[in-house]
Amino acid sequence: MTSLPTPRGRLSENRALNDLTWLRVGGPADYLFQPADVQDLRDFLRDLPPEIPVFPMGVGSNLIVRDGGLRAVVIRLGRGFNTISTDGGIVTAGAAALDAHVARKAADAGIDLTFLRTIPGSVGGAVRMNAGCYGSYTADVLRKATIVTRAGDLVELAPEDLNFRYRQTDLPEGAVLISATFEGPSGDPAELHARMEAQLKKRDETQPTRDRSAGSTFRNPAGFSSTGRADDVHDLKAWKVIDDAGMRGARQGGAQMSEKHSNFLINTGDATAEDLESLGEQVRKKVYETSGITLEWEIMRVGDPMKD
C-alpha cells in the first residue's frame, strides 16, 4: 500500500464529504488533507507519490460529489488561508476567504467588488470558475493568483496564464490556488454597501436561497440559433428553456428542480447524488427533445457512482 507524507495539518482517511458540500450529498474521499499553512501544503504535495490524484475543494457550493466518493486526496484550505487585506485599490485574499466577506471588506475600503457579494463560495472557486454576475466577472478584476503546484513549488500566475473563459480557467493539473489579488474601481463605501443590500434582496426574491442547492445548475445557452442563420442567434436563459420543457418542479427521489427558480437543483431533504445528477440529466434530455438545445452543466460533478 502506498504511504502518504506525514503533515503538520490534519490528514483524515476515508473521510465522508457530504457534510462539506452545500447539497449535502457524496461518498468519502480516500483522504482529506487540511494543511496547517502554506509550507505544510508545499511539503505535502512535494512528497505525495505522483500517482495519487489531488482534488482541491473549496466550500462545496458548486459541487456534486457522487455517492461512491473520490479516489483522491481532497485538499481543503481553512484558517490561515482566509485572510483579506486592502491597500489603495488592491484587495488580496486567501483562497479560503468567502466571496461575500471579500466584497464587504473591499466596500469598507471604497473598492468596488460588489458583484462578489451574492456569489456563494470562496475566492479559490471564484478564480477557478471565473465566477461572475451582473455583467462582471472575476477575470475583470484579477491581477494575479498564487498557486502551489503538484511538485510543491510556489508560483504566481498572471490573468493571461489562466486563460479565462465563461466559468472556466486553465490551472495546472493538481495545483492548489492559495491566494488572489484583485483591483476594483473606487466607490463610496456607503453606496457600495447599499448596492450589495439591494442585490441580496433581489437574489432572495428570485432564488431559493433557503433551500439546499448549488446555485445555477446549467449554463445559459448563449448564442443559440434555432435555424442555423447567424442573424437568428439570440441569448436564452436556462430557466426559460427548462420551463418551456415543462421541467419546473420536476422530481427524482429527494431531488427537485426548484419551483421558485427552475435552474436551481435542490435537495429536498433525503436526496442522493444519484438522484440529483439523474434529475439533471432528465432535464437536459427533455430540453433537447423540446428545443434542440443541449444544456451544459454548470455544477461540477466528481467521483464514482455507488457500486451495486
CATH class of the largest domain: Alpha Beta
CATH fold description of the largest domain? Uridine Diphospho-n-acetylenolpyruvylglucosamine Reductase, domain 3
Total domains: 3
Strand content: 25-35%
Uncertain ranges: 224-234
What is the rounded distance between the termini?
25 Å
Task: Report the structural category.
Answer: alpha+beta
Radius of gyration: 20 Å
- Helix tally equals 8
What would the average pLDDT be, to the nearest integer? 92
Number of strands: 17
Largest sheet: 5 strands, antiparallel
- The neighbouring-strand order within the major sheet is 6-7-12-10-11
Shape: globular
The percent of residues in helical segments reads 25-40%
The arrangement of helices and strands along the chain is: EEHEEEEEHHEEHEEHEHEHEEEHE
CATH architecture of the largest domain: 2-Layer Sandwich
